[in-house]
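User: Hey, quick favor. My workstation is busy. Could you predict this chain's structure for me?
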Amino acid sequence: MLPEGFVRETFITGLRQKHARILPQDIAFSVENGWLPLIAESLDQIDHALDRHGWIAKASVRQIKEKLGDLRIYVRPRRESASFPKALSEELSVIRDSYTSRSIVTCEICGDVGQLDNFDAYYQTLCRKHADQRRAWVASGRKGDPFND
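Assistant: No problem, here it is.
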């Protein structure tokens, strides 16, 4: 559950400041608010892993998005021709897999316990309340915003 008075832009600004070494200022946070705390935790772990392996200045987060109902955070070397050492690559994979697994049980909208489901060929992880709203929106012809109208 997101805290009372949660402000998306303030939260994201804080993440950009805290993780300026690995997070480009123009990167899009292409997810709903419920996953932002997962992203914050993941960025902490990614930052520490890159720092421990001496890659903090040589890598960055390239993309943060939802895909097929789960959270994806892509970290790549800054130089296209570079490759992560095996130990770092394995550590980043563990971090990625952990947060992907957590995202499919966390409502993307509010952060409550959720479930990955198929909403008329659109996969999304939602709590019961938001899943019902998504289903009603689909049934009504997809008019407006399913969560804010």
